[in-house]
Amino acid sequence: MKPKKYLVPDYYPAFRCIGGACEDSCCIGWNISVEETAYQRYQKVDHPTLTPLFRQAIVAAPKEQRNVHTAAYIQKKPDGRCSFLKPDGFCLIQSELGEEALCDTCASYPRNVNFFGGQNECSLGISCPEAARQVLLHPDPIQFIVVDADPALAKRTHLAPAYRFPLQGSGDPTQITTLNDLRGLIIGILQFRELELGARLMVLGFLLDDVDKVVSAPGFRNAAEIVPVLQGYADFLSSPQTAAVQFSQLAGNLPRKLHLIGGVITELLASQAKPRLNACLLAASEGLLAEGGDDAALVQRYTAALNENFAPFLREHGYMLENYLVNQVYSRLFPFTRASYLDLYRELVCSLAVLQVLLVGMAARDGHLETRQALQLLQSFARKAHHNPTYLDKLLNAAGATGPGAFVDVMWLLKDE
């Protein structure tokens, strides 16, 4: 049988789990699901240490939740640690039985496996600190390469994809090719460094709105109908000064932005936030709020920190935020995994606004920003937000970005004035 090939970002092959050296272990704090085949296999293990632990620490999923991918869960200890996590930070199952004995959840994380048409794809989730380093500390634009199947996943033939498009089958190859061209254009816009990042997201919003109008029209029949739209935006990027002027004319509302994001941070992030994220929230709060004052004083402090403390970091390391967005787009089959092409776009804009306000606040406290601080925020934010199925809806509701055509209603968050 011909071995499977996977499309992966160029950072992917370099990833290796660092086990006990990890500063934010995936074996602490999360519920871990066990697929049916692993659950049955664990019931038959004859091992002096693992056999009683398997029976005690792995519990069957409730009947209404149970399926081939989630047959059971690994119970956590009172401190949130996985029952099989050893004091040295390594897994008892892997150390005693080998990596192949791990359940799919543990063997695959932080890898994301997706199916787009007939194409197999892998990426890394940045909620893992080591994956975040591979993804974010990547100064050149992320490229995509074709590789053999990841050895950690190759034998897991029933591994559930994180996302797939279409939901059934592989789709019409010709139409899938056109939609893949749309994905390529989206990533090209996000990596178009002749424009500042906010302007790139503005252009992306206009593109998705135009595409959405075509595909949601009553007479829409074939993806080929979006080809003129794609060509128009590809040509548009040959004149970046036009987009730069448009972005300069986009109206912002900084007092509203800071008030809104302050509420989002409090309601969505601070509640039960882990220590690494809490440290970032505290630093940002101290940087922007420690001196007190009214809204005008807050806007003044934010603007000063943006220009004096954050701008130097952004000039040198702006690729970190670009890579965050590109990784989100690629790993989530953007924009095909929500009801509307614009839903995930709105989340990108809102998430970027939240992250930038926090980064500016952290820079304000220390008078500068280091890559390790930015890494910690982006990784801990991803751990809190990317694995929370209600996060997107709550974020959009908080931003007032719901309903038809609301993509325009989040663009003001791209501005800091």
What does this structure look like?
The protein is 50% helix and 8% strand. Helix 6 packs parallel to helix 8, helix 6 (173-190) runs antiparallel to helix 13 and helix 7 runs antiparallel to helix 14. The strands form 3 sheets. The protein has a 3-stranded antiparallel beta sheet with strand order 2-4-3. The protein has 3 domains: 5-163, no CATH class; 172-248, no CATH class; 252-414, no CATH class. It has helices at residues 36-43, 50-57, 92-97, 104-108, 129-136, 173-190, 197-215, 227-236, 240-249, 254-270, 275-289, 295-317, 319-331, 341-366, 371-385, 391-399; strands spanning 5-9, 32-34, 58-60, 72-74, 111-116, 119-124, 144-148, 163-165. It has 417 residues and is mainly alpha-helical. It contains 16 helices and 8 strands.
Explain the layout of strands and helices.
Blueprint lengths: L4 E5 L22 E3 L1 H8 L6 H8 E3 L11 E3 L17 H6 L6 H5 L2 E6 L2 E6 L4 H8 L7 E5 L14 E3 L7 H18 L6 H19 L11 H10 L3 H10 L4 H17 L4 H15 L5 H23 L1 H13 L9 H26 L4 H15 L5 H9 L18
Parallel strand pairs: 5-8
Antiparallel strand pairs: 1-7, 2-4, 3-4, 5-6
Helix pairs in contact: 5-15, 6-8, 6-13, 7-9, 7-14, 10-16, 11-14, 12-14, 14-15, 14-16
